[in-house]
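Incident log, support desk, overnight shift.

02:14 A customer reports that sequence design results differ from what the structure should imply. Their input is reproduced verbatim below. On-call engineer (initials T.W.) acknowledged and began investigating.
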């Protein structure tokens, strides 16, 4: 998770996805994942880098003090949704087995 002045993000970062197999496996199932999570996600492949990322963003941040409770609730729910939706898929992924 990252918190900025104007946004909160829950991130699935994969620093060792050189061949993009994990990202591609998840991306193929993106409609189902996004539907289950209830948010449109940002799917990022970092060209020239090993890293891939999937992000959920709430366009409010630490400057919006009046709704910190809502922000914290969103972040907790989103982290739980990421664990539920991505965790099972990554643990079952053949690409994950090769990187362990």
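02:41 Re-run completed on a clean worker. Output:
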């Amino acid at each position: 998770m990252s918190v900025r002045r104007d946004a909160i993000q829950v991130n699935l970062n994969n620093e060792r996805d050189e061949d993009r197999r994990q990202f591609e496996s998840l991306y193929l199932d993106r409609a189902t994942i996004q539907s289950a999570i209830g948010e449109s996600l940002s799917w990022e492949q970092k060209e020239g880098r090993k890293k891939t990322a999937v992000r959920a963003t709430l366009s409010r941040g630490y400057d919006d003090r009046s709704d910190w409770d809502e922000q914290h609730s969103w972040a907790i729910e989103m982290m739980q949704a990421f664990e539920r939706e991505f965790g099972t898929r990554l643990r079952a992924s053949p690409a994950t087995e090769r990187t362990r």
